[in-house]
Amino acid sequence: GAVVSQHPSWVICKSGTSVKIECRSLDFQATTMFWYRQFPKQSLMLMATSNEGSKATYEQGVEKDKFLINHASLTLSTLTVTSAHPEDSSFYICSVGELSYNEQFFGPGTRLTVL
Amino acid sequence: DAKTTQPTSMDCAEGRAANLPCNHSTISGNEYVYWYRQIHSQGPQYIIHGLKNNETNEMASLIITEDRKSSTLILPHATLRDTAVYYCIVRVGIGGKLIFGQGTELSVKP
Q: What is the dihedral of CA A61, B37, B7, B14, to 10 degrees?
């Protein structure tokens, strides 16, 4: 299966700053990547679908101007949390999933803490 | 995609079979049943999926009832490393986005 990495694995930032999280597909080219958010003791919530070379598709209720997604290449998608606030503190997870694949391959996640 | 219902938590003795149920009474004919698990503070891991027939792989077995309104994931010999949250997901097709429910927190005890 595909190997997916995320960087950084954890980050602490001050309120009001922006944080960029990278998601890399290490061993195959991914036209589609997904971004999820998970709060403590809760399930994963799909935030957006990232498509290479085009605009991301955001789920209802997710602010596209706050969570900027860029999928500029077949191996890299980035999520930027702009003007982060403490309520944005969460576990952010990306995944890679193509229509020809039976399964999605998930990254290890990035834990964001906003002070 | 159809909604699923799972018990919040379950315990299982190490070495015994773990049977995790999932109800999906509104499933459509073209919707697949997927199982993923998430070990604490890690990304989810694919386990198995099926449409109508029972399926088995090196990790688990998936039993789908004839009317497809429910299914059971079976871990034949649970180990402590199987302690995780198990998610049953129903969706159309084999690709595309996954919508996670609350899942079942399985605790395997010595």
A: -160
Using a CB-CB cut-off of 8 Å, the residues of chain B touching A101 are: 94-95
pLDDT for B24 equals 95
For the record, the structure tokens of A71 come out as 């999928």
The type of residue at A91 is F
Mean pLDDT is lowest, of A27-31, A53-57, A61-65, B76-80, for A27-31
Question: Nearest 5°: CA angle at A29, between A28 and A31?
Answer: 140
What is the per-residue pLDDT across B51-109, written as a single tens digit (0 to 9) for each? 999 999 999 999 999 999 999 999 999 999 999 999 999 987 666 778 899 999 999 99
Q: Which two tokens stand for residue A80?
A: 């930027």
Contacting B with CB below 8 Å, chain A residues are: 1, 4, 32, 34, 36, 43-46, 49, 91, 93, 95, 97-109, 111
